[in-house]
Write a structure and sequence with these properties.
Blueprint lengths: L2 E5 L2 E5 L17 E5 L14 E8 L5 E8 L4 E6 L3 E6 L4 E6 L5 H19 L4 E9 L2 E6 L6 H10 L4 E3 L2 E6 L4 E3 L5 E4 L1 H8 L15 E4 L10 E9 L10 E5 L1 H10 L9 H17 L2 E5 L7 H17 L5
Parallel strand pairs: 2-3, 3-8, 10-16, 16-18
Antiparallel strand pairs: 1-2, 4-5, 5-6, 6-7, 7-8, 9-10, 9-11, 9-12, 12-13, 13-16, 14-15, 17-18
């Protein structure tokens, strides 16, 4: 039984219902067709020289975690994950196929598909994406930007606990309408490491695992906790490394030039972008930072202080909104 969803501004139609997407609005039209459990027929028996590997992602020990290849002279891209998940995307970003090896599960395959693989698809389609969480404050959005481990997901969960709707936990797709740039809603969930779940919710077991084989936990965004419509991006907060010596959150202004360097570094799936796409992305981000203020946030590493951090960001955002626009 097929199912359709609106995710990151795309109308997604899958051959089976996808785990974790129940309740998302149906799209007005289909942009991306997803097939779980099989690959394109014309990939059957392709010779080894039909695949050209051009990117390898490695973990801290140097072990490959993701290999990206072009297949059949660039007609397809293959993302092969070390977890046994394989995602194939056609060159236009209109169709995706996903399979998984013995020992992996369909839930794990969907998690990869809707994570870095979806970011890859969006970049193929010319959509600029930030590696960021996004939160609704009133009728506008703020982005929380930072490298892995900076606390984006924990901070997003902290905002959700204070009653602010979350647009996305990790993949922020930007909709450039010319006059304003909006953030598209992604998935109705936030992923947390067990340590974060322990600190914020009392026990890791207070939240379900993403899949039975993974230790990471899932905070489901139900009802008004998930922002289902795109919102204009009104401020960007760069999360610096947390410290034990910071009693209260410190929020400092950033220049557009410094912010641009950081945004380019934290754009999603940037390693897959060709020169024309990179030029387009640079233009979108530069225009964004001409209109949207940026802040650098330094917070305490103690996650029990997360409410104070979120409240400080909200106060700062309201102060920004109250500033007069320069003539």
């Amino acid at each position: 039984m097929s199912a359709s969803y609106s995710v990151c501004g795309l109308g997604l139609q899958a051959n089976v219902p996808l785990a974790g997407l129940k309740g998302l609005p149906a799209p007005r039209h289909v942009d991306l067709r997803v097939t779980l459990g099989s690959m394109p027929a014309d990939l059957d028996g392709i010779p080894a020289n039909a695949a050209c590997e051009y990117f390898t992602e490695r973990d801290e020990q140097g072990r490959p975690t993701l290999r990206v290849s072009r297949l059949i002279a660039g007609r397809y891209y293959r993302l092969a994950y070390s977890a046994g998940i394989t995602v194939v995307v056609d060159s236009s970003g209109d169709e995706v196929w996903t399979t998984w090896a013995d020992g992996a599960t369909e839930e794990e395959a969907v998690s990869y598909l809707l994570g870095s693989a979806l970011g890859f698809v969006l970049r193929l389609r010319g959509v600029t994406c930030l590696h960021a969480s996004a939160i609704a404050i009133g009728d506008r959005a703020i982005a929380l930007v930072g490298p892995s481990g900076s606390g984006k997901s924990s901070t997003a969960a902290g905002f959700a606990r204070l009653g602010h709707a979350v647009l996305t936990d990790d993949l922020a797709a930007l909709c450039d309408s010319g006059d304003r740039i909006r953030i598209q809603p992604a998935l109705p969930r936030v992923y947390l490491w067990p340590e974060s779940a322990q600190s914020m919710f009392g026990s890791p077991d207070s939240l379900p695992r993403i899949t039975p084989n993974w230790d990471k936990r899932r905070l489901d965004l139900v009802g008004e906790a998930f922002q289902r419509e795109p919102l204009p991006l009104a401020a960007i907060y760069f999360l610096a490394e947390r410290t034990s010596g910071c009693a209260a959150p410190v929020i400092d202004a950033m220049s557009p030039a410094v912010a641009l360097i950081n945004l380019v570094a934290d754009s999603h799936a940037s390693e897959f972008v060709d020169r024309p796409q990179r030029a387009q992305e640079f233009d979108v981000l530069a225009r964004l930072l001409r209109d949207v203020p940026s802040r650098r946030v330094t917070a305490n590493e103690d996650l029990s202080r997360m409410p104070q951090l979120c409240e400080a960001i909200v106060r700062d955002f309201h102060a920004i909104a109250a500033e007069p626009v320069p003539a």
